[in-house]
Amino acid sequence: MTRIQLIQSIRERGSYLCVGLDPDLDKVPAHLLGEEDPIFAFNKEIIDATRDLCVAYKLNTAFYECYGVEGWRALERTVSHIGQDHFLIADAKRGDIGNTSTQYAKAFFERLPFDAVTVAPYMGADSVKPFLAFDGKWAIVLGLTSNPGAADFELQEAGGMPLYERVLSTVSGWGHPDNLMFVVGATQASAFVRIRKLVPDHFLLVPGVGAQGGSLREISEKAANSDLGLLVNVSRGITYAGKGEDFASAARAAAQAYQQEMQPYVDKILRVKIIK
Amino acid sequence: MTRIQLIQSIRERGSYLCVGLDPDLDKVPAHLLGEEDPIFAFNKEIIDATRDLCVAYKLNTAFYECYGVEGWRALERTVSHIGQDHFLIADAKRGDIGNTSTQYAKAFFERLPFDAVTVAPYMGADSVKPFLAFDGKWAIVLGLTSNPGAADFELQEAGGMPLYERVLSTVSGWGHPDNLMFVVGATQASAFVRIRKLVPDHFLLVPGVGAQGGSLREISEKAANSDLGLLVNVSRGITYAGKGEDFASAARAAAQAYQQEMQPYVDKILRVKIIK
After folding, report:
1. Which residue in A121, B48, B176, B270 has its CB near the most CB atoms, within 10 A?
2. Mutate which of A25, A27, A64, A66 to disrupt the B interface (most B C-beta within 10 Å)?
């Protein structure tokens, strides 16, 4: 999916919501556990209940790998069920020496139909660039993450600025806003103004709203750019909004609340853009 | 596998060789491509030809994920064939927020029988510590990697020292030499003396010998500690030593050459240790 298509999709759905599909069999409603593939059964109902309210789905590979071959099969079935109308993110946080990163890129971009993979920047250019070499595909590189551990290295001083700022300014030179995004956690709202000076044109993937405590309003006001430029991810706040047989309608209600909060920002930013 | 068991295994086999199993169907000998599971068939012959010459096998997950469910199945069959007598490393370079890192740890330590997972440090403590919470299991954290991209962030100044030194000194406080190792590339030999001051007791996993140009002699002389403290990985230099039907015996010959170069260091360091 191209940047223009993504922006068009945000405008049409009045939403920059990304739904995180991180299924955990300990939390999946009991009535699904008898299904042949309970992970897929769970995802399918969440997808069908939220499809018109979001523009992206993000699958964290950890929640599939922990079920081995069955988990990997559930991941394949899930992305196939989502189809081509959503921006598909493999939240895999990969990154390795060049020839190995190419194998990861093939795994997610060729073997599977993902639009984007999240990438860890620690190993530098040859670990990131292979993900930028596939037409119409994206690398989403970790900038400043939403977890407490961000303080250990990302926020440490590195040559006169925090390490994550060095990452944003260095990595943004390896790609362009049509094939490169950055992860910035919603819990880091105070940093968004500075971040937008470093990467004014790139989309940001923003996790940490909901269970981790980030504010959708604060992000939208501080971090949107003239393309909107945000994908705000909510995982547990949507998928586990309900715990019983009505979990899908509870998920829809939660997603709808986010979409409704997003609509005015979309109207304001992208309607102005059309008029221009 | 415990540290004592690993050292015992190094002593018995006169080897600190780790064989990297990164199968690529474009490089697997043609006569295996007709097998039902050519990746496993390839790995099985390599394992059977090198089992007595190495103490560890390292599987880079990228080379399995790129074949989807079939690749993941080949990975499961491979680790099952290796069994319990070798230190089993999932070279996965994972790392995510706490609850997600726990899912990755379960994937490799519970669902699969790996002894160790390689972990990227960028996201800090809560992304690394979950891998240290499993009895008898190990995190192998990226320190200074063997690729050119190491210059982009790892070698950049961070608070008065290169970032990778900050990673070594910070992360070593999160675990201990019985559950934590570090990756240090063989191409970075000039840094080994300094590294051993920061982490004198930890095992180092050293990739980059062979195809990437690192010297086994230089590593052994500069980076061994009184436990030996090294796992030197060779992937392509062994698995693709031969390209025809005799690939397994070519792999054995290559592994044997490494083992024979290692034997004197093992004799010197671990024999002295017994006498003590």
Report:
1. A121
2. A66
pLDDT beyond 90 at B174: yes
Residues 6 or more apart from B264 whose CB is under 8 A from it? none
* Amino acid code (one letter) for B123: M
Summarize pLDDT for B64-94 with one digit per residue, the tens: 999 999 999 999 999 999 999 999 999 999 9
Collapsed DSSP state (helix, strand, coil) of residue A162: strand
Closest residue on chain B to A96 (Cα): B93
Q: Which residues contact A34 (CB under 8 A, 6 or more apart)?
A: none
Number of domains chain B is built from: 1
And the tokens for B240? 């693709």
d(CA B137, CA B115): 5
Report the 10 Å Cβ neighbour count for A40: 22
Query: pLDDT tens digit string along B128-163?
Result: 999 999 999 999 999 999 999 999 999 999 989 999
Partner residue opposite A151 with nearest CB, options B69, B124, B152: B124
What are the angstrom distances between the C-alpha of B247 and each of A56, A150, B39, B251? 46, 46, 14, 6
Over residues A204-218, the pLDDT tens digits come to 999 988 777 788 999
**CA–CA dist A129, A22 (Å, integer):** 27
Distance CA A196, CA A2 (A): 21
CA angle in degrees (0–180, nearest 5) for B253-B226-B193: 85
pLDDT at A276: 46
Within chain B, where are the H helices?
Answer: 3-13, 38-50, 62-65, 68-82, 98-106, 125-128, 163-171, 192-198, 216-223, 236-239, 247-275
DSSP class of residue B53 equals T
Range of the domain at B206: 3-275
User: What average pLDDT does the segment B168-197 reach?
Assistant: 94
Per annotation, catalytic residue among A27, A44, A58, A93? A93
CA B276 to each of CA B2, B11, B222, B269, B271: distance values in angstroms, whole numbers, following the listed order:
21, 15, 22, 11, 9
Contact A123 B94 (CB under 8 A): no
Substitution target in A100, A102, A154, A161 with the highest count of B β-carbons within 10 Å is A100
CATH number at residue A120: 3.20.20.70
Give the burial string for A116-153 (b: 16+ CB within 10 Å, else e): bbbbbbbbbbbbbbbbbebeebbbbbbbbbbbebbebb
Closest CB to B69 among A73, A94, A97: A73
Confidence check: pLDDT of B52 > 90: yes
Work out the average pLDDT over A260-265.
97
